[in-house]
Fold each of these.
Amino acid sequence: MVDIPQHVVIVGGGFGGLYAARSLAHTSVHVTLIDRRNFHLFQPLLYQVATGALSPANIAAPLRSVLSRQKNVTVLLGEVKSINARGRRVVLADEEIGYDVLIVAAGVRHHYFGNDPWEQLAPGLKTIEDATDIRRRVLFAFERAEREHNPDERVKWLTFVVVGGGPTGVELAGALGEIAHYTLRNDFRNIDLMQTRVLLLEGTDRILPTYPPELSTKAKHDLERLGVTVQTGTIVTDIQPEYVTAKTADQVQHIDTHTILWGAGVQASPLGKALSEATSVPLDRAGRVIVEPDLTIPGHPEIFVIGDLANYSHQTSKPLPGVAQVAIQQGRYAAKLITARLKDSAAQFPPFHYNDLGNMATVGRASAVADLGRIKLSGFIGWLAWLFIHLISLVHHENRVLVMIQWAWSYFTRNRAARLITGAAADRPIS
Amino acid sequence: MVDIPQHVVIVGGGFGGLYAARSLAHTSVHVTLIDRRNFHLFQPLLYQVATGALSPANIAAPLRSVLSRQKNVTVLLGEVKSINARGRRVVLADEEIGYDVLIVAAGVRHHYFGNDPWEQLAPGLKTIEDATDIRRRVLFAFERAEREHNPDERVKWLTFVVVGGGPTGVELAGALGEIAHYTLRNDFRNIDLMQTRVLLLEGTDRILPTYPPELSTKAKHDLERLGVTVQTGTIVTDIQPEYVTAKTADQVQHIDTHTILWGAGVQASPLGKALSEATSVPLDRAGRVIVEPDLTIPGHPEIFVIGDLANYSHQTSKPLPGVAQVAIQQGRYAAKLITARLKDSAAQFPPFHYNDLGNMATVGRASAVADLGRIKLSGFIGWLAWLFIHLISLVHHENRVLVMIQWAWSYFTRNRAARLITGAAADRPIS
């Protein structure tokens, strides 16, 4: 039996944490939401920032502003370092905050499979800074190619390698193909953009391996139409500043390039490990917390783990995927179970059940694949479905309208107005 | 007599350089535009980015995209280090580029009057990175205040000092007053935002000293209505991480604060000095190049200096102000004179004459002062005039429409959606 909770602490303002906080409106608990950043990020559209179609503010909503009217929520900017499960306190660098119920929704980071030096050479796409860094690298490569007199070097600047054929890799590769062959077409004088090579390398035998095979085939076809070379069965074995080494079944491949993007792997936030040290909860190989059917951890009904950080294996044979819908539904579930405890009706509460609404990935301009269970969409219809579902999910109404207008404009003009080379490194003289 | 020019090199893609390049369309010359950045920046709206109302991409247009249809222009991303005037070449780090005519439009930077360490403590507002840095500092100060238990420290986090009462300082101070007293009003739980202090310190006896006195008085009144404390006759004598020292006629003032913004002084780009070393052209005290009545420099009719980098004193007793209109008109003039040389009709060409269209500055939400010669506007009417003139001046039509929508939304909701704490420093844990 659990005491009536009064103070709920939520760590992480992503989809899981934010929806948990919102679902606790109109209850008697006080909620403290702690995040390292001051905004909620709509990660599914991050690749659009990386490729210059949208601005960071289009896909990020200040947490304070999203929650300003919900008076039972306090937002704190800070980083939780560890958890004192016995004393029921989260530990920040300069203070500790007590809780009655803790919801850990700290998400995942990139994972380079033990090859940490690769991180500097092949950035992944998880944060706003990742996105503007990728944008800078891609645009800078075309600028350097334009000024390059050595033809071999020029080819290296016009070669882009995307590692990993999951949704992020597919979306990045598609957008790169579109930029090279359409958006920038008239912008350069010395280089021929049709010589741009975009390579998508995937280790398994098809891209989008978690989707139905027919959608993988459609996505491959759409990418090829955008000038992307798709190589499956290809494992990257080394990444260096000016080349990538990859292994296929029968050969070793050496690819000269200055621009490598990482869409291959993620691992759990270090908070998973901290939680395991504090409570002995088991972790899976990716560092995710293995949770109970009610999303709590063994022996600690007051601690929930939700979203990408949670490994929930009670519904199907494999863990639920790390997508926004799982996090949202888990955040709502945790809030409902807490509310039931307030009313002393938690005993009959059913276990968490994920209602799969389907999966989607875009493939360049105006094409997408959508797996909605019995319905499988692709091409323009898939893209319209993708557009509709993503737009209605944007947290802020303002963003929704502005993003729609910006997109409509980008769509009809094939323009990407936000292609700015910015950041500390961009201000460094390049020549 | 000058030879018929075939290749015009323009250094700098600000207002002067961009309008010169555009005005050379439909001529026989080839134009090379060199800039350190890949975009043209609409600097008059930079303070809107610094205060979270607009995104960087709203006020920046990729130079390649602006000039993509003008086939006689090549855009190069690079930094000109020096000028070989005898050999008629500009020198970049890795190559030299020859010219027949050179237009130097490299602009100005911040100036801390010999107190270089102040730059780290009190950032100015000239680049996109400056704007996002200021945005980060301001938003972060409110976040720290929310988490601060020591009341004295909290006051320091809620005190903002703006140094310099010119247009930039007035616009920043007004926007800060608005943010504290309106935008963020419902966002915090532990702090009372009405305790926020915004101080605007100006050395002379009135703010906006280059405007007519009645507009200075109106602007001061509008700022005070937004909760800004305006102190004239106040010279800053020291800036330290946690305080500012200022001197008035009869006392020395010590102001505790964590957030200091610089709107006080600018100096010429180092390219002015490089040009002077190459050609012996005289510079003024701010390092600006003193130009001839036709904007060229003595002994070098093939070198023009325009925009903020030029000191043009042939029209009135003092140099023309460093505003966009001067740069635009000078860029057009230089292009016309070059075109006249192509037609061998340059001998009768009149000297440059600045057509003063007026000056404007905004003071917080929906209020501005405009000095249009005989017509002087202030308050809401001034703001509408300001809005209209700035919107129609935005280089890209897309930006114009999107910025207008974003502004209309901000205006009616007093919201500032782009208030993101981003950048390398933002990703560093703060607690």
Amino acid sequence: MALSEFDLIQRFFAPFASTPAVVTGIGDDCAVLSISPDHQLCTSIDTMVEAVHFPKDAPPHGLAWRCLAAAASDLAACGARPLGFCLALTLEKADEVWLEAFASGLSEAAEFFQMPLLGGDTTRGGLALSVQVMGEVASGAALLRSTAKPGDQVWVTGSLGDARAALDYLASPPELNDFYDRYYYPKPPLRFAQTLVGLASAAIDISDGLLADLGHILEASGVGADIAAADLPLSSALMQGYSRQEAAAYALTGGDDYQLCFTAPRAHSSKLQVLADDQHIQLTCIGAITEQRGIRCTDSAGQPIEHDTPGYRHFS
Amino acid sequence: MALSEFDLIQRFFAPFASTPAVVTGIGDDCAVLSISPDHQLCTSIDTMVEAVHFPKDAPPHGLAWRCLAAAASDLAACGARPLGFCLALTLEKADEVWLEAFASGLSEAAEFFQMPLLGGDTTRGGLALSVQVMGEVASGAALLRSTAKPGDQVWVTGSLGDARAALDYLASPPELNDFYDRYYYPKPPLRFAQTLVGLASAAIDISDGLLADLGHILEASGVGADIAAADLPLSSALMQGYSRQEAAAYALTGGDDYQLCFTAPRAHSSKLQVLADDQHIQLTCIGAITEQRGIRCTDSAGQPIEHDTPGYRHFS
């Protein structure tokens, strides 16, 4: 038996996930819910469990930031304005030093992403955090996965692969890990994402790896993509620490980047660049949507790159 | 060090729990959030961890119902109309038989409470469930804890103490446990709660035990209460299985009932009874709000009953 998380959800939970108020239910970054004639609510939940999603004895300040950022990233993927979040925190014990650092990291992230803590629950058990986020969009404006069109360009924000590189150094002290901040302090571009409404045709956040996440857009939209590996945005730290091939592999399949991948009609290209420049967001076009299904990824010589890593799978 | 859950939240998390859109933040059953001029969003999250909040090897169907009912109960306490819920499910392994039964219980509860599953996350780890619920109220209509007034009557729905009695028999087969359904299949009165808007002055759901939960209303409202133990609604099963004194103790401090406790001006008494009768809700007046702080609980002879059980505390 090897149920993927996707199969598990589709088979057991999707059947009762709809009422007339649910505009988009299970299967996109956030559920979208009508609550007034002109606004819709976007909501999503993410759980992180010790020793599964983060290492044992992770620093509480960074852990708190990362957990809120990962959940906020789903709001970015919908172009939603953050309203707030709920936290379910399960702890072995109420260690005040740990809690002080955790609350401080959470508070800084809440301030950074402009989303207040709305409520929560603290329980005793193995360390685990569930963060549920809420945001709002104008009715019909939410960026979805299912609306990419052949000919659209494929864009990504930030640089990719650094969070994966951080895993190679997590046993080292933070000051010896060039990628530490990219793992514990991701900064999904929430404000930039809101300005993509009306410009982007589809969007997703990069949590499981570019190929896996772009794959979700392609599948939901019934299209394919050509990706130029030479155009992947790689940080100088990644290029210095790894071979070109390793760096590209981390960028394509690494996960945990919490940047945006979106598609947009070619006509919006220069407008997108201006918006990104204004907000100091690194924005890179890495390819184009095709009618032909599947992802074709080529190197700088135009040779196909093998990619068989399917991204993170929880139950397979 | 013995931090109560309340202290932990107030000290570490309350400081960053507010923006202008947050009408009521941490400290009531749900947070209330303005999202359009005429409606407000009510939201709350509850976590249940195996061997802490429910026994090891709990039946998955009942576990799913109980978990959703417990979270829905917070919406009842606010008089909110349910919109939907998110589920974060952490599992040791993807056991299909277990999941089938769990999804079936969750689906039946979602249908019963009229709230669709909006999204979720499945992760690997020790069995734990976080359910986050959303509901809506007309602006300003949410039932809060802080607005009980001296002279108001204190009401409870359903009968109390049965869920506590169920714990005495959880090792027995379900058919030998008269209280099994009251533990695994609580039915918070969501529809009745919505009709209390405009009639009740304050409300809370009974999750930690009547005295503990009523205590939250009294503290938030700056008042006290006289409670007549002889008027407590006790099921015939509870009265047959336990002494009068034991039954009253379970009703006062047992917890897990997921019924409503609310206060209302005396002038609404008969209207409340009519509403409850129409909806086949058992409704009982058990006392009155006083200016004098604290809870005074008396038996049928008017003698004070000792009560020092503070309800469920997670970290003390």
